[in-house]
Amino acid sequence: MGRNKRNGLTLVYTGDGKGKTTAAVGLAVRAAGREFKVKMLQFIKSPRRTYGEKYSLEKLGIEMDQLGIGFTWLKTPEEHREALKKAWPIARDTVMSGEYDLVILDELNNALAIDSFPIDDVLPLNEVIDLIKNKPSHVHLVITGRDAKQEIRDAADLVSVVGMEKHYYNEGVNAIKGIEL
Question: Which of 7, 31, 77, 169 could make an S-S bridge to 117, C-beta 3.0–4.6 Å?
Answer without folding.
Answer: 77
